[in-house]
Amino acid sequence: MVGDAEPAGGDPRLRLRGLSVGVLVVFAVVAVGLFIGTSRVAADQNKRLLVERTAEVGELLSSSVGTGLGSSLTSLAAGGQVLTAASFTHNAQGLVTSDAVAAIALIEHRGSSWVVEAAVGKALTPGQTLTGPRLSIVQSAGAKLRSDLFAVSPTDSRLGAAMGPPVSSPGTVLYEEYTVDPARPTTLTQAQPFHELNVAVYVGSEPVGSKLLLSTTPRVPLQGRTARSPIPVGDGTWLVVASARQPLSGALANEVPTILTAAVLIIGVAMTVVVESVSRRRDYALALVAHRTAALQDSLQQLEHTHQALVAHERLAALGQMAATVGHELRNPLGVLTNSLYLIRNTVSGQADDKLRRHLDTADREISAATLIVSDLLEFSRPRTANPTPIDVAELLEEAISVAPPPSGITVTRDAEAVPLVVADRDQIRQVILNLLTNAYEAMPNGGEVGLGARIVDDTVEIVVSDTGIGMDAQTRAQVFEPFFSMKIKGTGLGLAVSKRIVEAHAGTLRIISDEGQGCTAVITLPLTHAEVGARE
After folding, report:
1. In terms of CB atoms within 10 Å, which of 38, 60, 248, 520 comes out highest?
2. Over the chain, what is the mean pLDDT?
3. pLDDT for the residue 292
4. Average pLDDT over residues 15-23
5. Of the candidates 253, 287, 203, 209, the residue with the CA atom closest to the CA atom of residue 48
6. CA 244, CA 239: separation in Å to the nearest integer?
7. What is the rounded CA–CA span in Å between residue 483 and residue 219?
8. Tally of domains in the chain
């Protein structure tokens, strides 16, 4: 199974990748832009339809109101002839058919005043002199209808309309007055035209509250998007203001922006899911490839190490077999030479001069050196069986110094902690310490200082042998444990190889720390816990 460790920020499975977030953002931006664009188109269409419908309302009102008021007053005229009070009253009686008509009157100009000559209805009485808004309407009346809206009390408004000569007789004006209640809206049913509009009609060219004639809603002035349509009524102008109760373009057309936006968002979410799924599969595949590649590399490294170990083992086995053969073949001749040299020395002991004695001593030294080489070869080829016992490391270090005392010019310092007993083969560990100690002496031909110490590190005991000698370069460090590798003029190159094998047989390690010209430190690590001890081939 391939997976990443969960970070502190939360479950990585719940987080979108950058590409998925980018796709979602792009679709969200497109959805917002599409919503804004289509909303503007729908709004423009509704606005255009509202303007058209308001103009239609204005045309309808212009024809119906203007024609209705004008025809009502024109029917009272006598073709420009003088109307009598009696004939006017008779004709006007048939026009007062509802409570909405407050008065119909014949107004006569007398001097500087306008006086009611005849009247039908409750608003005016014969002989009444006109004042205020009524007087203004009558004074400005002419051949075209003159109209205005005025208040007679805080709760009572009137619409006045008047026509003068030539419709009426010279010096007279026909006047009609209607009761208006703008606070009570006109109700429109679904079957009536323009039922989808809120309409307010004002007597005048501006939407002034005091000039509101009628409305189809109690909420005036109208709020939101509205349209205006001025309509001519007689010699004046009325104003129609309208707003839509519902989208004029239809419910479906009005919902198109929302539908399109939702569709784009759904597509965006689906694409995000697809991209995220593909990205996760791709990342999983890449992680799996990386994992398998790392496992393959580890296997190749292990195989390489195993191969190197096998080659080294075979090489050591071959070297061991050769060393055993050479050691065995040389041991007997060396023994014979030693005995012969002993007999020669005894035979000529009284007759030999100094020169002969020097040659005999030289032969004795070389035979001893050859014997030591043979011993090293045999030790390397046939390691001894270990005999583990508890040993005192501090005591063993002291013994090593006494067996191999430092040459002239070299001092040995001890820095050993109190460490517990270690279970190991005493002779073999002593041999390793002596080998390292003599190597340290030989690394300081001009004198120096050797340090011996022991310390506890975790669950191991480390034995340290250091010197201030010439040190080693990188190439020497890499080959120092190889059999038969030596930088000495005289030496088999088996000492460190045998020492490393002995330490590893005790489940420990032997490592060399050194830089050229900076001395050398050899560290033996032995476990404190009991381990199976035995020489490894």
Report:
1. 520
2. 81
3. 93
4. 81
5. 253
6. 17
7. 110
8. 3
**Side-chain-side CA neighbours of residue 131 (13 Å):** 3
Angle at 279 between CA 276 and CA 280, to 5 degrees: 85
pTM: 0.51
Q: How many Å apart are CA 86 and CA 90, to the nearest integer? A: 6
Same domain for 440 and 364: no
Percent of the chain beyond pLDDT 90? Answer: 15
Q: Which domain holds residue 487?
A: 383-527
Residues 6+ apart with CB under 8 A from 158: 102, 123, 149, 150, 151, 152, 177, 178, 179, 180
Alpha carbons 466 and 453: distance in angstroms, whole number: 9
Cα 93 to the chain's mean position, in Å? 87
Q: Name the band, by pLDDT with cuts 50, 70 and 90, for residue 199.
A: very high
The answer to whether 132 touches 116, Cβ cutoff 8 Å, is no
Strand order across the 197-202 sheet: 212-215, 197-202, 236-244, 226-233
Residue 211 has, within 13 A of its CA and on its CB side, a CA count of: 16
In a domain, 256, yes or no: no
Confirm if 232 and 226 have CB atoms less than 8 A apart. no
